[in-house]
Write a structure and sequence with these properties.
5-stranded mixed sheet; single chain; 2 domains; Arc Repressor Mutant, subunit A; 7 strands; about 50% helix
C-alpha cells in the first residue's frame, strides 16, 4: 500500500467562506458544493481533503465571479486564469511564462501587482496586493504564490526548486501548512511577498500542449494542492518510508533506521533536533489517510482501522479523536 494522500487545514476553508459571506454568498450552497458541513467548518482541529478545498474554491469562483475569492480590492473575473494560461502556453521557456503571465495580470487584475525579475544571483517572482487589509488571514497571498509556483512548474514538466519564499506578514498560526505548500524555507516579516529560485531553470522549455491544458483547467485548482512538501533531511527520510510502507502496522523506528543505514538512537536524536518524532510523523500520515478514507462512504470504519495498522476499531477511534477532536463516525456524519 502506498500512503500518499494528505489533508489540508480547515483554516483555508474558514477564510474562504468568511470572505464569501461578507460578499453575500450563500453559505449552505458553498458547503454543499464542497462536501463540507458547518460542524466541520467550525472545528479548528479538523483537516479536509484537497478535493473539498478545490470544490469550495470552484464554488466561490462561480457564485462570486471572482477568482480572487472576494479577498482583493477588485474581483478577478472567473475565466481570467484560463485566458492567461492560454496566452502563456506558446511561450518558449519558463522565463517567457513569468514575463507574459505577469504582464497579462497587471493589465486585467487591478487588485494585484505581479513582478518578475532576473539577476546574476537568481530569479524572483513578487506579489503585491493593492489592499492587503482585505486579506487579513493572508489567504489570497498564500493561494496566488502557490499558483505561480505550481502552474509554471506544470508547464515545464518539472518542479521549480525554490530556494526561499518570503512573506510580508509575520509568522501566522497556520505556518505549519507552508511546508506542505512551498518546498523551501519560509521567512516572515519581509518587505515584499516573493519567492526565489535558481535562474538556470528559466531556460526550461514549455512542454505542455493545448489538449493537456484543457484537462488541467478542468481540474483547477485541485492540482495546485498536490503535496510538494518541504521537510528537513531526516524528517523527509522518515516520511518517504511511511508513505511507501506496504503495511502501516509493521512500520517502525527500527525499520526506517535500517533502511537509511543508521541506528535508532541516532535517528531519534536527529528527529528531535528537527523538532519532531517518529510517532508524530506516523500519526500525521495515518491521520491524513484516515481523512481520505472517511471521505469514501463505502469504506467501513473497521476496514480503515485495519488499513492504518490498528488492531481494533476502538483504538482507531481514540486516536482519530485525539488527532481531530471528533470521532471517525462523527467526522463522516458531519459531511453528509
Amino acid at each position: 500500500m502506498s500512503h500518499k494522500h494528505h489533508s489540508i487545514s480547515i483554516h483555508f476553508a474558514q477564510a474562504v467562506v468568511k470572505a464569501a459571506l461578507q460578499q453575500g454568498l450563500n453559505e449552505q450552497q458553498l458547503l454543499h458544493d464542497a462536501g463540507l458541513s458547518k460542524a466541520l467548518l467550525h472545528n479548528n482541529e479538523v483537516r479536509i481533503t484537497p478535493q473539498q478545498l478545490s470544490r469550495l474554491m470552484q464554488s466561490v469562483w462561480r457564485h462570486a465571479d471572482d477568482e480572487y475569492l472576494c479577498l482583493g480590492s477588485q474581483p478577478s473575473r472567473h475565466g481570467v486564469f484560463s485566458m492567461m494560461a492560454k496566452q502563456v502556453l506558446p511561450s518558449g521557456n519558463l522565463r517567457q511564462v513569468y514575463r507574459r503571465g505577469s504582464r497579462f495580470y497587471n493589465l486585467v487584475a487591478a487588485a494585484t501587482d505581479l513582478h518578475f525579475e532576473e539577476s546574476e544571483n537568481g530569479a524572483r517572482f513578487y506579489l503585491k496586493l493593492a489592499d492587503p487589509e482585505l486579506d487579513p488571514d493572508h489567504t489570497l497571498v498564500d493561494f496566488l504564490l502557490l499558483l505561480w509556483h505550481r502552474f509554471p512548474s506544470w508547464l515545464i514538466g518539472q518542479k521549480i526548486p525554490l530556494t526561499k519564499i518570503c512573506f510580508k506578514h509575520e509568522k501566522p498560526a497556520h505556518f505549519e501548512e507552508y511546508r506542505l505548500m512551498f518546498p523551501c524555507e519560509a521567512v516572515y516579516g519581509q518587505a515584499e511577498n516573493y519567492f526565489e529560485f535558481d535562474r538556470e531553470i528559466l531556460n526550461a522549455p514549455v512542454i505542455q500542449t493545448q489538449q493537456n491544458l484543457s484537462a488541467y483547467l478542468r481540474r483547477c485548482p485541485l492540482d495546485w494542492f498536490q503535496r510538494q512538501s518541504y521537510y528537513p533531511v531526516y524528517t523527509r527520510k522518515v516520511m518517504d518510508y511511511l508513505e511507501n510502507a506496504e503495511n502501516m502496522a509493521d512500520s517502525s523506528m527500527e525499520g526506517v533506521a535500517s533502511q537509511i543505514h543508521t541506528t535508532t538512537r541516532t535517528l531519534r536524536r536527529k528527529l528531535l533536533d528537527e523538532g519532531t518524532s517518529f510517532q508524530e510523523l506516523k500519526d500525521g500520515v495515518r491521520r491524513d489517510e484516515a481523512i481520505h478514507y472517511l471521505s469514501q462512504p463505502d469504506v467501513p470504519i473497521s476496514q480503515i482501522a485495519r488499513l492504518l495498522g490498528f488492531t481494533e476499531a476502538a483504538a482507531f477511534t481514540r486516536a482519530f479523536k485525539h488527532w481531530t477532536g471528533i470521532s471517525p463516525s462523527m467526522y463522516r456524519k458531519s459531511k453528509e
